[in-house]
Write a structure and sequence with these properties.
Elements lengths: L1 E2 L11 E6 L2 E5 L6 H11 L5 H6 L15 E4 L15 E4 L7 H26 L5 E4 L7 H11 L2 E5 L4 H13 L15 E5 L3 H28 L4
Parallel strand pairs: 6-7
Antiparallel strand pairs: 1-3, 2-3, 4-5, 7-8
Helix pairs in contact: 1-3, 3-4, 3-6, 4-6
């Protein structure tokens, strides 16, 4: 999110970077995104190709939102935002004999996005509410994931035609520095939306229930994570 002033979070969950004079970027960085899904597909699905791993995601449509009570904390490599804890660990919670590999696969992806939601909540509490979310990059082409993201956030997810968001941002910075762009607001005319995903109200309600459990687990387990650390 962009702000006209540096915004301080008393809980120190998010960062603030100066973009240009009088314009800041507020956000949160996560260690546990695609690398977590790669770990799961390699270790439990015997998939060692990124293309095959992405294609296998389509199968999780069969599993309802919330993975029928299976929850995953995705902190396999510690975590930065929002807790900044190098000793945080991954956890599967709520496992029953009724859960299949597909349940675990979906729970992994839901856990990654629930942590993104946690960062989003920290931003909204500190900076202000966000009405829509723009997504770019390779994952933006996976419909089941984009619908899941919309359902988890309860907000519209816009997919841009230009999928290389970082490169496009660098391009705009260069135009601004050269005086070819007067204000970043002018860039709105350069952004074209390819597709929009709207949240499903029933799924969103289920994810809200799941999120309440998700955010309650880390504080309860934090001390035990430290005890499990093999480096101690």
């Amino acid at each position: 999110m962009t702000t006209q002033a540096s915004t301080y979070d008393a809980q120190e969950r998010i960062f603030n970077y100066l973009l240009v004079e009088d314009l800041y970027i507020a956000g949160g960085a996560s260690n546990n995104g695609g690398i977590v899904y790669q770990w799961f597909t390699e270790q439990f699905l015997d998939i060692d190709s990124k293309d095959k791993a992405f294609k296998s995601i389509k199968k999780i449509r069969k599993i309802p939102a919330g993975s029928e009570g299976l929850l995953f904390l995705p902190y396999l490599t510690g975590e930065r935002a929002p807790m900044w804890d190098a000793q945080a660990k991954g956890v599967f919670f709520g496992v029953t004999k009724n859960h299949s590999k597909l349940h675990f696969q979906k729970a992994v992806l839901e856990g990654i996005f629930l942590n993104v939601l946690q960062i989003g909540k920290a931003l909204e509490e500190t900076v202000g509410s966000m009405e829509t979310i723009y997504v770019n990059g390779g994952l933006a082409h996976i419909e089941v994931l984009m619908q899941m993201l919309a359902d988890i956030f309860g907000k519209a997810i816009h997919i841009q035609e230009n999928e290389e968001g970082s490169a496009f941002g660098a391009f705009l910075m260069g135009m601004k520095a050269l005086g070819l762009l007067g204000d970043f607001a002018e860039a709105k005319n350069m952004i074209r939306i390819q597709k929009t995903y709207m949240p499903d109200a029933v799924n969103h309600e289920r994810y809200q229930q799941l999120f309440a459990v998700f955010i309650s687990l880390y504080p309860k387990l934090k001390d035990d994570f430290e005890k499990l650390d093999h480096r101690n």
